[in-house]
Amino acid sequence: MYIDEQLTEGYVIVCGGHSDQHSFLVKNLSLSVQCPTCGEVALSVELATDFVMRQSGSPNGQHARINGTLIGSEA
Ligand SMILES: [Zn+2]
Fold it and tell me: I want to staple 12 with a disulfide (CB 3.0 to 4.6 A). Which of 5, 8, 28, 44 is the partner?
């Protein structure tokens, strides 16, 4: 289970329980999050930590795109 996105309405959680990926919205992260579809429970701390780690690692993809645009405009 992981946080896919943070919205003003809450957090979009993606769950892969029962080998079927599904997502649901959580208004606020309490101690733990339970999936309404398969009942799997995850600790909010672990979800939040994983989310922050992925956020800080994501700029790499954006850099590649920016570089590609710069090279294109120079040529
Ligand atoms: Zn689930």
Answer: 5
